[in-house]
């Protein structure tokens, strides 16, 4: 039975890998986060400066560099393209599934539960969303899971003391991925584990050396850049840490209850089983209590923080997946049936929605023949597997149905994003038009009053950011070594810069991107005069001569 579960898990990983890498490069980078990470990593490779991340030629110290390094390695292997940028994102999700499997084995000594927990984790909507968007969150979660995995090996004495050093090493790399937030997830898990299992902390030479290893790895980049620019110390401590916790920063302030609907969404349709059975699960084992206490602590803490984002709690979702399986195991056939019907309804509605959008012309929404054909084929496979395997009244069947449903979403969704780039805020069609419209060697592209990171990724044309009223175009230039950045950042609220902008449009082939809802402001009517041609790209108008 154990060998069968191991073989099933390997088959599951293979299917997930095929799902994740299929059509991975079919859609362009989405603004703003993914495009920003992709462009910073590209500039890192081009400049050879792996110490100081740059975005459009301006130093960008918002995050430590591990996510950029991994993306840069992807570029080195596959070239400057979407597949190279997203490659390690998919690989790390596969690592997460393996780590969840191993952690459940250590906590519960149950290979079947380990397999189902990993599969259930794959059906968490927040994981799928994070995996299709290049940010730090997938990488951070992987390093946290790796750290927990090796800490459990050490604390349960299943393997040697070297696991303690790997724990501290993973903590250091996680710190270099997203900073101090790593402590919340790792320390809460280890402290709560010790309390529940009555494991006293013993300060040994290995603990001291391990912590020194963490300090060396976790602080390496910070120390190097602070030695070069001492003013960064205050920036890291206050603006990037304290302000995010205590103040409204980066327009990410949300109400206290922000994560409640998110958790309900993450749990759908499993929420049908969770609410009536969580009390029973709570009384089952120390491992269940460990997970429940951790989830409660993490959600409450992040709810208190002023700055909130959906993916901030991603490193705790694996624990939710395990509890879901534990609740499903003791759920009644009626509840299992309800969840199974929910997945049937969700899948059927998705297929019907694709059919409607294909035959009814809705502006700015396109369902291609290829996408519809693929959806119908996958739906046929879903129905066939349901008839053969998933009609059984058992909880593994609903998890398998969830995996199929999200597999359909991931594969067909990639084609949807390819054909509806305006909906996902991708500028690839615009840049493709610019590249094809003229082969003039002196083309200039201007983004008016909006920070767009992906345009220079797709074109060799000179790219300018025109800063007027929108906050995204206000760049942090206090760390620049010189004023060379001013050549491509036009602060047109200054009369001299507005004049220079107008003069730049007098020569060569020029393209100006203006957000449609803002239009061309009165002081800059010369854009329409000097660039008489225009093309509508949904949310944007492209003016050109």
From TrEMBL:
Pfam families: PMT_2 (PF13231)
Keyword Membrane appears in the UniProt entry: yes
Chain segments annotated as transmembrane: 6-24, 83-101, 113-131, 138-155, 167-196, 208-227, 256-278, 290-305, 311-329, 341-360, 366-386, 398-417
GO cellular component: plasma membrane
Listed InterPro entries: LipidA_mod_glycosyltrf_83, RgtA/B/C-like
Keywords for this protein: Cell membrane, Glycosyltransferase, Membrane, Transferase, Transmembrane, Transmembrane helix
Membrane topology label: Multi-pass membrane protein
Record's subcellular location: Cell membrane
Residues in Glycosyltransferase RgtA/B/C/D-like domain copies: 62-219
Biological process, per Gene Ontology: lipopolysaccharide biosynthetic process; response to iron(III) ion
GO MF annotations in UniProt: pentosyltransferase activity
Main location: membrane
Name listed for the protein in its UniProt record: 4-amino-4-deoxy-L-arabinose transferase
Annotated organism of origin: Pustulibacterium marinum
């Amino acid at each position: 039975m154990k060998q069968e579960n191991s073989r099933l898990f390997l088959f599951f990983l293979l299917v997930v890998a095929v799902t994740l890498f299929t059509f991975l490069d079919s859609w362009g980078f989405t603004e703003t986060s993914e495009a920003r990470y992709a462009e910073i990593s590209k500039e890192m490779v081009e400049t050879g400066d792996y110490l100081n991340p740059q975005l459009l030629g301006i130093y960008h110290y918002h995050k430590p560099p591990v996510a950029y390094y991994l993306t840069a390695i992807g570029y080195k292997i596959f070239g400057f393209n979407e597949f190279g940028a997203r490659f390690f994102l998919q690989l790390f999700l596969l690592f997460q599934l393996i780590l969840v499997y191993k952690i459940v084995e250590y906590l519960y000594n149950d290979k079947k539960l380990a397999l189902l927990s990993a599969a259930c984790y794959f059906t968490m909507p927040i994981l799928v969303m994070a995996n299709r968007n290049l940010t730090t969150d997938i990488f951070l979660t992987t390093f946290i899971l790796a750290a927990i995995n090796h800490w459990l090996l050490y604390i349960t004495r299943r393997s040697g003391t070297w696991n303690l050093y790997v724990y501290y090493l993973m903590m250091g790399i996680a710190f270099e991925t997203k900073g101090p937030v790593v402590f919340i997830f790792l320390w809460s898990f280890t402290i709560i584990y010790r309390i529940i299992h009555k494991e006293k902390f013993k300060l040994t030479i290995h603990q001291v050396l391990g912590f020194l290893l963490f300090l060396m790895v976790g602080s390496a980049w910070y120390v190097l850049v602070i030695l070069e620019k001492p003013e960064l110390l205050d920036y890291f401590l206050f603006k990037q840490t304290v302000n995010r916790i205590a103040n409204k920063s980066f327009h990410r302030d949300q109400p206290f209850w922000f994560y409640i609907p998110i958790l309900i969404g993450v749990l759908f349709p499993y929420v049908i089983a969770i609410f009536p059975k969580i009390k029973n699960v709570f009384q089952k084992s120390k491992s269940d209590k460990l997970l429940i206490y951790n989830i409660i602590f993490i959600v409450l803490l992040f709810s208190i923080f002023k700055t909130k984002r959906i993916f901030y709690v991603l490193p705790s979702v694996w624990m939710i997946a395990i509890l879901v399986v534990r609740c499903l195991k003791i759920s009644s056939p009626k509840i299992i049936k309800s969840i199974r019907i929910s997945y049937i309804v969700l899948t059927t509605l998705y297929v019907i929605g694709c059919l409607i959008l294909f035959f009814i012309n809705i502006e700015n929404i396109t369902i291609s023949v290829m996408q519809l054909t693929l959806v119908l084929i996958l739906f046929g496979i879903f129905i066939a597997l349901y008839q053969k395997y998933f009609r059984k009244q058992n909880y593994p069947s609903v998890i398998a149905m969830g995996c199929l449903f999200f597999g359909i979403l991931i594969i067909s969704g990639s084609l949807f994003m390819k054909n509806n780039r305006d909906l996902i805020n991708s500028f690839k069609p615009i840049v493709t038009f610019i590249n094809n419209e003229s082969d003039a060697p002196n083309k200039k592209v201007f983004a008016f009053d909006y920070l767009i990171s992906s345009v220079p990724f797709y074109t060799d044309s000179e790219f300018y950011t025109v800063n007027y009223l929108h906050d995204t175009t206000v760049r942090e230039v206090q760390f620049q070594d010189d004023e060379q950045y001013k050549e491509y950042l036009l602060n047109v609220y200054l009369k001299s810069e507005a004049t220079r902008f107008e003069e730049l449009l007098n020569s060569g082939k020029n393209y100006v991107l203006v957000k449609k809802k803002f239009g061309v402001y009165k002081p800059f009517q010369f854009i329409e005069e000097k660039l008489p041609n225009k093309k509508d790209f949904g949310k944007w108008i492209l003016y050109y001569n």
